[in-house]
Amino acid sequence: MHLQEWPVQRWMDQLAPCLPGFSVQVLPEIDSSNSELMRRARAGDTRPALLVALAQSAGRGRLGRIWLSQPGDALTFSLGLPLTVTDWSGLSLAVGLSLAQSLHPEIQLKWPNDLWWQQRKLAGILIETANVGAQRHAVIGVGINLCMRDAQGLSTPPAWLQEALPGISAPQALERVLAPLVHTLQRFEREGFAPFVGGFNARDGLGGRAVRLSDGVCGVARGVNASGALLVHTAAGPQAVVSSEVSVRPVPAGA
């Protein structure tokens, strides 16, 4: 994949009105696009920026999981911008909803930060923040599988976007998601997660399914609330689970 395939200037021009000073950079390889934007923010550079990595040697997912990518295998990018937010709860859910809505009507969401295609993991989200002076800078990292990948060592079988959208390239996928994602982040900044609850629950891949939490609790998932907590009906009663506490897995049929 050639760097010329990425319409960098057009994206900067398109988003400059709502993100003054917005920059777009596409790198052939980096350790982690999230790590790089966090380094820049901590060094004082908090200008809005999109960083795309054609390959990552030390990509990261939630809970310290590794996300490696080779050129052409995945779309991996990070979007960094200052956000003035009162309550950060549910941000990864709003990001996931925006991506799913931009890509395909049948993509589902797996709380708290995955996109699913036919019950397999299509994409993941990693959000990190840094306090820089009086501002809080957010870095939203996204990794979307584009084509078939090796499932060895993965806890969830992978899906890839070309199953849903045959022949789509990384630049074409980013073209679909970028502007809507920026608008979602700005709406979240103004209104929090509440406006996104209905949209998330409509695509909830866990809704109505038996689930098991990493702390051993089992129950039935019943969507999310206005703060983005997963609602699980357990034998001991309803439980609201926040993403910092545990991970959750669907219970296989018959288990």
CA radius of gyration is 18 Å
What sort of overall outline do the alpha carbons produce when their principal axes are compared?
A: globular
* Fold-level CATH name of the largest domain: BirA Bifunctional Protein, domain 2
How many domains, in number, for the residues?
2
- Secondary-structure class: alpha+beta
Quickly give the CATH architecture of the largest domain.
2-Layer Sandwich
> Major sheet, described briefly?
7 strands, mixed
Low-confidence stretches: none
Helix count?
A: 6
- Fraction of residues in H or I helices: 10-25%
Specify the CATH homologous superfamily of the largest domain: Bira Bifunctional Protein, Domain 2
Description:
The strands form 2 sheets. Strands 1-2-3-7-6-5-4 form a 7-stranded mixed β-sheet, sandwiched between helices. The protein has 2 domains: 3-201, Bira Bifunctional Protein, Domain 2 (BirA Bifunctional Protein, domain 2); 206-250, SH3 type barrels. The mean pLDDT is 90. It contains 6 helices and 12 strands. The protein is α+β, with helices and mostly antiparallel strands and 255 residues long. The radius of gyration is 18 Å and the shape is globular.
Break the fold down into its secondary structure elements and pairings.
Elements: H1 8-15, E1 23-27, H2 33-42, E2 49-53, E3 74-82, H3 91-103, E4 108-110, E5 114-117, E6 120-132, E7 135-145, H4 161-164, H5 170-191, H6 197-202, E8 210-213, E9 218-224, E10 230-234, E11 237-241, E12 248-250
Helix pairs in contact: 3-5
